[in-house]
Amino acid sequence: MADKEDPKNGKMGKGKSKVVCGYPLSIFFIVVNEFCERFSYYGMRAVLVLYFKYFLRWDDDLATSIYHTFVALCYLTPILGAIVADSWLGKFKTIIYLSIVYAVGQVAMAVSAIHDITDSDRDGTPDSMTFHIVLSMVGLFLIALGTGGIKPCVAAFGGDQFGEHQDRQRRTFFSVFYLCINGGSLLSTIITPVLRAQECGIYSKQKCYSLAFGVPAALMVVALVVFIIGSGMYYKAEPQGNIMLDVCKCIGVSLAYTICINTFYITAYQQWLKKLLIAQIKMVLKVLFLYIPLPMFWTLFDQKGSRWTLQATTMDGNFGALVIQPDQMQTVNPILILTLVPIMDSLIYPLIKKCGLNFTPLKRMTVGMLLAAIAFVCAALVQIQIDVSTKQLLHSSPYILSGQGFIYFKLTIKGKANSDTEIVENQAITFVGFTDYFLVYFRFVNGMKTAVNVSTAAADFGLIEPFYYSNYSQIKNGKATFTLRSGSQSCEYSTNFGFGSSYTFFIHSTLVFGSNCQDSVTAVEDIKPNSVHMALQIPQYFFITAGEVMFSVTGLEFSYSQAPSNMKAVLQAGWLFTVAIGNFIVLIVAELAKIPKQWAEYVLFASLLVAVCVIFSIMAYFYTYIDPTEIEAQFKKKINEDDEDDKSKPGKAEVEMVKRDSIKCHDEYDKATQTKM
Questions:
Q1: Do 240 and 86 touch, CB atoms closer than 8 A?
Q2: Per-residue pLDDT tens for 282-302?
Q3: pTM, whole model, 2 decimals?
Q4: With helix as H, strand as E and coil as C, how does 211-253 read?
Q5: What are the sequence ranges of the domains in the chain?
Q6: Would the N or C end of the chain have less CB density within 10 A of its end CB?
Q7: 418-527 maps to which CATH number?
C-alpha cells in the first residue's frame, strides 16, 4: 500500500479514509487496537507475580525480581521502537511487526501455564518445570519487546491521521485514547484474576493461569487484526530520522563546530543557527538533570503489582457479597486515578492557588514523592499486623512456614481409647501437605469400618478406605456442602471455609446416615483463616495513587512545557527510562538486600524516597522556569533578520565553505520537527 499524501497539506491520498462526525474513520481502528492491547498487557501483568509464586513455585524475592525485570524491559524497549519507527520502518510497519511478536509472546505465556503438558503422572503438578520456565521467559521477552516497541508509535500514528485544520478533533482523540488505556487496564485487572481463580485442566483441575493468560493473548490477536483491517485508510508518513539520534549527532557536531569556529568564514545567519541549537540542547539537559532522582518514585510505585499483591495473598478478601482476589486489589489504582485527576484539577489545585500558595509543578512532584513514601509506611503497618496474626497461627496450628511461601504441615492423629470407636490403636497417622495463602484446602479422615465416598455438587473427591485419609483438595472459600455416601446410604455435611485456611474433617465411627451428619463430623483448623482484611490496603493504594497523580501527570506536563518544540520526544524517552531504572532498583534490593522482615523493607524504601525527595526539592529550588516557545521565537526572529542581511552581501561562494556537518545538522532538525516518538 503506497503512502497517502500528507493530510496536513490538504491533499487527497490513495487510501480511502472517510470522515465520520468530523473524525477520520481510521482513528476508530486505532482506538479499538489500543483498548485491546492495553487489556492484553495489564491483564497478563495482573496475575504474573502469582503465576511465578504458585505455578512456577518461586519464592517471593525471585518472583518480585523477575516481575520488575520484565517491567523494566517494557520501559526500555520504547527507545528501540522509536528509533526503528522513525529511522527505518515507519510507524505503521513497526506496529504491525512488533504486534505479531507481542501476540506470539502472549500465546507462549498461555501455553507455559498449561500444567497437563508435563504432568505425566496426572497429579496436578508439572513434572518438568524447566519447560514451563523457559517458555514463560521467552514469552515475557517477546511481550516486553512488543509492548515497549509499539508504545511510542500508536499514539503518534493516531495523531498523524489529522490535518492542520483538525486540532480540536486531535485533542479529543488523545483524550479518548488515554481513556481507552485506563479502561483496558481497569477491566483486565478485574477480569483476569477471576479467570485465574477458576479451575481447569485435562487430567487434573488446577488454578487456571492458562485461561488468565489466554484471554489477553486472544485480545492481542484481535488488536492486531483490527489494526490491519484499517490499513487502507491510514496516512503512513515516511521515516524521517529519529530525534534522539539527531540530538546526539548534533551535540558532537556542535563541539567540533565550536573548535573550528575561528577557522572558517561563518555568516551571522549560521552563527544564530548554532546558538539556537545549543540553547535547545541546554533546555533539554537541564530537565534531564532533574530526572536523576526520579527513578526512586517508580521503585515504590510499581511494587503495587508485586510486593503488595503478595501481601494481599495473606489477607482476607471477603467483603460480604463480594470476594476480592489478591490480584484484584490493583483495580483500586485505576479507579482512584479516574476519580482523583478531575478532583485535583478542578478543586484541589484551584483551592491552593486561591490561598495564595505558589504550588509550582516541581513542588507538586515533591509532594507526590512524599505521598508515595507515606503509602509504604501504611504498607509496613499492615505488614506488621499480618506478621502478628501469622505469629499467633504458628503457636496454634501444627504447620511450618517455608521460605518458598508454602505452608507445610504435619499432623498426628491418635485413636480414642474406646474399644468400639477407636480409629487407630497404639499408632499414628502422619501426613504432610502444602497449601498457599489464598486457597482453601481440606481433607477427610475416615474413622468408620466401611469405605466412604465424599463429594460436592461440583466435584467427587473419591472413596476413602476405612481408617484412612484422603488427599488434600482445593475448594473456594465460603459455604460448602459435602455429601458422604456409603453404599446406598448418604448424608450431608455443611460448613463455612475461611479465606486462606486449611481443614481436616474426622468422620466418627458412630456416624449414622440420615438427612445430615453435622454432629458426626469434627472439623479441625490445620491453618486458621486469614484474619487481616484486604480493606486495610486501601489507604496505601490511596496515597500511592494520589502521589502518582501529583508526580506523574504533573511531571509529564512539566517536561512538555520546558522542552523545545523539536525535542519533546527526547524528554519522553528520558521519562520512560526513569521508570525502567526504578524497576531495576527493586530487583537489586530484592536480590541483594535480603531483608528478613517485609515491613522493614517497606520502611527502607519509604526512607530512601524521603531522602531522594529532599535532594530533588533542593534541585527544584535552583531550577529556573523558561518558555521555550518564546526563546525559540527570539532566535528565529534574529536568524531571519541576519539571513536577509547575508543575502545582500557579496561573497556567497565563501559562505558555502562553511563546515557542512553543522548545516546538515540544522536540516535534520527541521525534518525532525515533524517526527514524534
A1: yes
A2: 888 888 899 999 999 999 999
A3: 0.78
A4: HHHHHHHHHHHHHHHHHHHCHHHCCCCCCCCCHHHHHHHHHHH
A5: 1-241, 418-527
A6: N
A7: 2.60.40
